[in-house]
Amino acid sequence: DLLLLTYMFPPAGGIGTPRALAYTQYLPRPGCRLSVLAPTNPALRDHDPGLDRLIPDDVVVHRAWNPELPMSFRDRIWKRGVQHHNLAPSMRASAARSIARPFRWLAHHMLFPDPQILWAPSAFRKACRVIERDAIDTVIVNMPPYSLLKVALALKRQFPHLKLITDFRDEWLGYYLSQIDHPTEDKVRRAWELEAEAVHASTYVSTVTGTWVERLRRRYPAEPASKFVCTPNGYDPELFRDFKSTSRSDGKIIVTYFGTIHGNRVYSPDNYIAAIESLPPQIRNQVETRFIGRIIGDDQSSLTRTKANIRLLGFMPKEQGIRHLQESDFLLLIATDPSSHAGKLFDYFGCAKPILALSPPGGEIDRLLRLTRTGWCADPWDPAAIQQMILAACRQLRQGSPAMNPDLDAIQNYSWPRILDRFAATVGLTPAPISLGSTTSPKLPMSVGA
To answer: What integer pLDDT is reported at residue 40 of this predicted model?
Structure first.
């Protein structure tokens, strides 16, 4: 039997949940019971209760108490200190730094490797009870948060027979720490030690891009190369079964971004906004860019104080957001690290609509767009290249010629049923036939186990 240990799970929404949910829906397991262990009330901003109904009836979901401050409480503290109406913008920035400083110190020194370490003791105790009672022989640990590595190691020590599969949705040391977290030197040192111990204890180590797989293999040359497997992110075909493009006669060119809007340089929309602002006015006024998702950081002001035609639709449940994509002409993707691919890329694949990507040419996203024939990629740091990509896309749309001729079979290779069928075969779980009109499982272009 199989246990999935994950922090991000319905009713929590957001970027990490679809991967964990897909394991419960599509991981082949004839004769194998799959259970999930998740927190009682994860400290996450986004909630999407509609995702609960996608959990299969035969999956048993266990909850362990997590003694964390609710995200709503953290936000109230932040807003009271930073967004007080009497503070000028420059003073708000100073207040933000003052408030963030003690939280940053606490996170780096007391809550290693992340605040979710507070959940680790109760998660471990609950997992032990489930493993003993249900005779679990395989545990998949879905990350982030990376504090789950400590739970994984404790479980392996307690139950040496376990097949332990550590699943890094984001590569930790070379990507997350350097691009997202910006940690202290001491935290980096401790992170290297923790990851090395977890990799050694794992039966398999999974991550989402070929670049990251090779990075892990080079980092741990003493481990068998076959230990490291590539399990891409994917899309749920059921969510797009009734997807149909909506025709419009308003003369607009609608570009839609579906996901969290970050101030972080990896995902910041600033260069896209600058490119739109520099377009000739007659074209700029025709382009309407819609952002669906929560705004984190200081991007609210950059998205509202602009000559570009911007609509902020806010966070919404995934199925509702997908309906908005039906009337879009182009889908916007921003991910400036060449080794990563944003999870939203695969939902965009499910739409089969042309993608405008701000991502390094030759990187993982560029390669996938070429493979599936689903979009264009422009250097995210080259304003002229971004502008030319937008102009070329608009020109093709105005001429009435197909913007793209997507390879539908290549796209389907990134549906969760196909990805997890391959994953099951690679890690020694019994595969089951996929249900996409084919009796065989096609080889993934970015295959699991590559």
So the answer is: 92
- As a whole number of angstroms, the distance between CA 272 and CA 299 comes to 12
Question: How far, in Å, CA of 199 to CA of 100, rounded?
Answer: 32
**Tokens of residue 329, six digits:** 């002409």
Residue pair 419/442 in contact (Cβ under 8 Å)? The answer is no
pLDDT range class, residue 70, cuts 50, 70, 90:
low
419 Cβ partners below 8 Å, 6+ apart?
22, 26, 231, 232, 234, 413, 444, 448
Q: Tokens 């607009």 map to which residue? A: 252
pTM above 0.70, yes or no: yes
Number of Cβ within 10 Å of residue 381's Cβ equals 12
CA dist 6 and 19 (Å) reads 10
Residues in a beta bridge with 168 = 143, 207
3-state SS string for 112-138 = CCCHHHHHHHHHHHHHHHHHHHHCCCE
Q: Which amino acid appears at position 163 of this protein?
A: K
Kindly state the average pLDDT of the residues 24-36: 85
Which residues, in sequence order, are CB contacts of 247 under 8 Å at separation 6+? none
Distance from chain centroid for Cα 129: 30
DSSP state, residue 351: H
Nearest Cα residue to 74 out of 42, 48, 50, 51:
42
Secondary structure class of 411 (helix, strand, coil)? helix
8 A C-beta contact, residue 232 and residue 265? no
